[in-house]
Specification:
Blueprint: E1 4-9, E2 22-23, H1 30-44, E3 46-55, E4 78-84, E5 88-94, E6 97-98, H2 106-126, H3 154-165, H4 173-184, H5 194-207
Parallel strand pairs: 1-3, 2-6
Antiparallel strand pairs: 3-4, 4-5
């Protein structure tokens, strides 16, 4: 069975499609989405837990990695990140869709779009259009994790962010993370992911409540 967990993001770090989102075109239930996603990730040989990243407060995520009943997800987008034994570290963000009604959860709709996208990519192999997983190359993250943590403490991570965005000492964590995400996003840095990976390591330490 697929192991997945919610990972909160302080802000949406990818290109925002606000103003051009489409209403949910799907008719599947969320359980159907999870089953489809599990099938596609099994094909990719997922290693370890799957991260489902949404814009929410760290306090809104339970210890088991699921959202609390009254959690507020502050952006419709979702980013799916995982390690594939065949294609390496992959991340798929999507915020193209929004729900039709209150119970039609935006991020779950976008997660279904990602699952269907993975299914479509797999068909490229099936019909011989791609081989050896080339169709996944554009979504690759770093090929290997660093051998030691990027930061020794949350304090060190904060200092790195302050230096990165030239912030004063009084700037709070939420502002630091928002400014940092904007500064290091690959779209602003020629597709480079090294700064983004450093930022993500800093974010996890800071949102974890460490010193």
């Amino acid at each position: 069975m697929m192991q997945w967990q919610i990972e909160p993001m302080a802000s949406w770090p990818y290109r925002d499609t606000a103003g051009s989102r489409k209403t949910n075109p799907f008719r599947a239930k969320f359980d159907d989405t999870l089953r489809l996603l599990e099938d596609e990730l099994e094909h990719l040989g997922v290693v370890g837990a799957v991260a489902v990243r949404v814009v929410a407060r760290a306090a809104d995520v339970r210890r088991d990695g699921m959202l609390r009943a009254r959690a507020q997800v502050l952006h419709p987008g979702v980013a799916l990140s995982f390690r594939s034994s065949t294609a390496g570290d992959l991340t798929y963000p999507c915020d193209q869709f929004q729900g039709r009604w209150y119970a039609d959860v935006d991020w779950q709709v976008n997660l279904r779009a990602i699952a269907l996208g993975l299914e479509a990519l797999r068909k490229l192999d099936r019909y011989g259009i791609a081989g050896r997983g080339e169709q996944y190359a554009g979504w690759r993250a770093i090929e290997a994790s660093p051998s030691k943590p990027a930061f020794a403490s949350a304090h060190e991570a904060r200092e790195w962010l302050r230096s990165l965005v030239s912030a004063e000492d009084g700037v709070n964590d939420a502002s630091l993370l928002r400014l940092g995400a904007r500064e290091v996003h690959p779209d602003r840095n020629g597709g480079r992911r090294d700064l983004w990976d450093l930022y993500d390591a800093a974010r996890q330490l800071i949102e974890g409540g460490g010193r």
